[in-house]
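note to self: dont lose this again. the chain is below, predicted strucutre after it. 275 aa total, dont forget to put it in the shared folder this time
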Amino acid sequence: MNLRDTQALLWRAIAWPTGVDDFLAQADVETRQAFAETFADTPAFSRAARVQVYAEAYFWRLYEVAVDQYPVTAWIAGSVPFHDLITDFVLAHPSRTPDVRRFATGLASMLRTHPLERTHPGLAEVAAVDWAISDAVDRVDEERLSVAVLQRIPAPAWPTARFGLTRTAALLPCTLPYSTLRQAWAAEQPVPVLERTPVTVLVWRQADHDVYQRTLNPAEARALRTLDAGGTFAEACDAAAGPLANEASPADVAGWLQRWLADDLLASYSDASES
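---
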């Protein structure tokens, strides 16, 4: 076999979800013959056992990447259940990209229908926040809005002002207290009793490439979601005020705007009246 065929055979064998022996058991005669001709065999170390070493290294590398990218999820689930989850994930979604950081992209989606979600309700949402933090690191960088831009906006234009969020930002629903849980995980504390209270978690990367997350109060979350959907400053103020128009004032939104600016959360400004 040439190098390309050898690499393809090795990949098929090590990525087979139930091990090299099972790969050979289901393989056709031609594949088994190619396997025997390609890989060395000794009485003390069979060719299947040799290739299994690579298969196990393949899995454990993917597992380590998943633990690194989903740290709070793995901590809540526990080492054995999380190991089993990644085993199920590799079975359903073998790596298909040379970038190992993209391997576990769909783990949160799979968790929504996985038995582990029934054991730990809300874990899939925690996984989605974990992934957003990992994903923000790799997002394309961009210029952020400066104070000078806001200072040049004339007063009559503020109601129709639109502010675009950085592409690194994500607004995620979570019924578990993600920020509190992440602090406990970082402090290597035991997993606390988990109380379910719906919140919105904001994840974003600042211009210095540090990634942050924080839990938003409902009014600020509505305002940011409105801006992220292309709404105007006036519409964001209405959303923040809530159904009874008493949860937050335009002054509150203006204060949040200052924080969003300082946090490098805003990346663009436009006037809806000019579009």
